[in-house]
Design goal:
Helix content: 40-55%
Strand content: 5-15%
Radius of gyration: 13 Å
Largest sheet: 3 strands, antiparallel
Number of strands: 3
Low-confidence stretches: none
Oligomer: single chain
Strand order of the largest sheet: 1-2-3
Structural class: mainly alpha
Order of helices and strands: EEEHHHHH
Distance between the termini: 20 Å
Shape: globular
Mean pLDDT: 96
Amino acid sequence: MYKNNVCSSLAPYMPVLCVEKNGQSWLAVNDYTIAFSRQSLFKKAEHILQKLPEPPKAVQHNWLTMVEQQTNIHINNQVTAEEYCHKYRRAGLYNDENFRNEIVKAFMLLPKVISPR
């Protein structure tokens, strides 16, 4: 398990990136992780992001290449994952069900597994 610094705009809701030994990777997410992130005002996600190591460089490169090709405004790396936690907390987005739904829709646009190149 690694910190999600590969799609930082989703990290407050989805802070964990899973990586297999073969290099395949995906964001670990379910309703529970989204709920605990929101209920903690994204502080639990921020704590996870601070504790987990960064993913291997090759995995980061594959994700960053894919993220750069996305057109959804909620899929980007404009600031760090931790900065997104602060930004979303300041904006009160932990209480915004519509924003949560937009984040989930954005996530659904991504490939479920990113394979090594």
